[in-house]
Design brief:
Length: 254
């Protein structure tokens, strides 16, 4: 970026591509403030060079919204997703796979706010678009299926969630290397679903394997690891095994 700025000058539209890559790296490192600055500069450059009506602008709005949501600023993220969705629908159409991205993120925001009916609506729409546009084995279909399955579990509809979680696990097991943390997360969530349905013997090996993978790949304090530990604690509590339940409650920070 330093070379780009020296050779092209501040404000050159070609800076946007390099800045976007830098923003992704900064976000992955957890440096949200610097990532936000980079995304906002990308957005300014794109609007200046491409105008407001361009898919790249919609993409950056969604990326910036996802960053703000990950930082916990849902109020700032939501209007960015709404604007991104409006642009995508106008420019690419209702059924384009990129249109699913802000729909998915809006679903996660509504889920986080406890509005599970709205979350289900957004997430179901995103999943439907991704299945139709990308095929039933695409990794983003697994992401959508997991998110919708989790929302249904939170609504007390574990029976409806099971098929979605199995779909997500099937895709991840086929597409990812053995021991990948994303497969571990899917195994844990399916195990949590089966535990909620009272199918403890089916749930236990999925949860234990998912937890083992997540501890190894993401560490014991990762939110997904703690979530799986909480599912295990609930399983053992319901199964009448209090000592094991207590151990996993401690792991989950409960």
């Amino acid at each position: 970026m330093a070379i780009y700025r020296e050779l092209l000058g501040e404000g050159h539209p070609h800076l946007a591509s390099g800045l976007n890559t830098l923003a992704v790296l900064l976000r992955n490192k957890g440096d949200f403030d610097e990532a936000e600055r980079a995304y906002r500069e990308v957005l300014e450059l794109q609007r200046r060079s491409l105008g407001g009506e361009h898919p790249d602008v919609a993409r950056t709005l969604s990326n910036l919204g996802a960053l703000l949501a990950a930082r916990g600023d849902a109020d700032a993220a939501e209007p960015l997703f709404v604007e991104s969705l409006t642009l995508y629908r106008r420019l690419l159409g209702e059924r384009h796979p990129e249109t699913a991205n802000p729909l998915h993120h809006l679903g996660l925001l509504r889920q986080g706010a406890g509005d599970l009916a709205a979350a289900e609506s957004y997430l179901d729409a995103a999943l439907d678009i991704r299945r139709q546009a990308l095929g039933t084995d695409h990794p983003t279909v697994a992401i959508s299926a997991l998110a919708l399955g989790k929302a249904l579990m939170e609504r007390g509809a574990a029976g409806r969630a099971e098929a979605l979680l199995r779909e997500a696990l099937r895709i991840r097991e086929a597409r990812l290397p053995p021991g990948d943390w994303r497969t571990g997360s899917a195994r844990g969530m399916l195990g949590g679903c089966l535990a909620a349905l009272g199918r403890y013997r089916e749930a236990e090996p999925l949860l234990l394997d998912g937890h083992r993978i997540l501890v190894a790949e993401r560490g014991p304090d990762d939110p997904r690891t703690r979530e799986t530990a909480a599912y295990l604690a609930g399983l053992y509590e319901a199964w009448g095994r209090p000592a094991q339940a207590a151990a996993y409650r401690e792991s989950a920070g409960l």
